[in-house]
Amino acid sequence: MEKGLPDTKPFAPFEWMLAGRYLRARRREGFISVISLFSFLGILLGVATLIVVMAVLNGFRGELLDKILGFQGHVSVYHADVSPIQDYQDLAARLAKVPGVTRAVPLVEGQAMASSLHNNTGALVRGISEADIQKLPSLNNKDLRTAFNKDLLPDETPSFKGFDASGGVAIGERMAWRHQLGLGSRITIISPDGPDTVIGNAPRIRDYPVVAIFKVGMSDYDENVIYMPLPEAQDYFVTDDGVNQIEVMVDDPDSVEQYTMPLMDAAGDGMALSTWKDRNSTFFNALAVERNVMFLVLTMIILVAALNIISGLIMLVKDKGRDIAILRTMGATRGTIQRVFFLTGAAIGTAGTLGGFVVGLLICLNTERIRQFISWVSGVDPFNPELYYLAQLPARMDSYQTVLIVLMSLALSFAATLYPSWRAAKLDPVEALRYE
């Protein structure tokens, strides 16, 4: 114990008391208090903004990934010469036996134009069997409406049971809206690859009743995709009872590369495959770059707030020079002085970081309500599904990422206190008292 002072062991109550006193500035120290307040608010807003933005970017990527993988297969297997696969049932059975494969779905897929009395739009037509379409979670949800499930009980969910025998097609909600179609309406599908004539290829034109309207929640799919029973698609695209491709679903889509060689071995010669990462690499790479850049840019907010802590503490040290000199003459060590000012700055950084975490958490839990409120106040949807693909604003907080943000903020805040506290400890009490 130092003479004339209470217990001054490292981080003793005496040091905490002094740090707390310096945080509560008197009237003549009001400017220092304002700087401390802005430092606190800067760190709070920086941490909250970084948590919210990273959560939204994570949610955006996760939702897109869920929608894309719920709509497309993880791996597509097809003939290298793009000819129809005739023995697709045997091939699908072999692919389904590969370890890690959960499902193999034969498909007929082709581009066409969807026409109605009100509009003409491009469309991706996908022929699929009733048994397989019932296994697609992105389509079989509470928003599904069908013409062949009219007698459902209130607690029953619509399904595609009866799709093969319906003789019609399933279209997305936004396509139905664009063409002003409902269940029972008819839509015309036009393909340029029709029969050969003396003047060239004639377009293939057929009318189909709309027997189902689905909602994936991703505007690109809800507006441009038509599902057709597999036998009807084989006839329409003239695949001679074959299919264009077999879509394979696996246990771990993020590690889809580990399945490519076993799938190629099971598929045999003359076959080729592409993964969902190959088909969407540009899109998801752009999202990854955007996420990393946003993290670096928003970290600068926290860094600026930490620099405010430095300036505030330096001014506090200059203002408290006489106090420091008196404490030193009473027996306080340089370590004691350094820890007092370290605690003063660290308290600002810790309070701002914890406050930012709480604010960020509250915003992440209410992002959709906030979006709806902004849309209601401004009259403009800030998250237009036509631009952002998704129908609502997602936010997924990653625990590891959030902890990293909190620790980074605390580290920057603590680092900002080192120089001012070191400068306070180096203050010569004789020089400080000479001019008092």
From TrEMBL:
Cellular component, GO annotation: plasma membrane protein complex
Localization, UniProt: Cell membrane
Q: Which InterPro entries match?
A: ABC3_permease_C, Lipoprotein-release_system, LolCE_TM, MacB_PCD
Main site of residence?
membrane
Residues covered by the ABC3 transporter permease C-terminal domain: 296-429
Pfam families given for it?
Answer: FtsX, MacB_PCD
User: How does the record classify its membrane topology?
Assistant: Multi-pass membrane protein
Q: Where is the MacB-like periplasmic core domain?
A: 36-258
| Keywords from the UniProt entry | Cell membrane, Lipoprotein, Membrane, Transmembrane, Transmembrane helix, Transport
Residues passing through the membrane, by range: 31-57, 293-317, 340-363, 399-419
Protein family = Belongs to the ABC-4 integral membrane protein family. LolC/E subfamily.
Please identify the protein, giving its name as recorded.
Answer: Lipoprotein-releasing ABC transporter permease subunit
Q: Which organism is it from?
A: Aestuariivirga litoralis
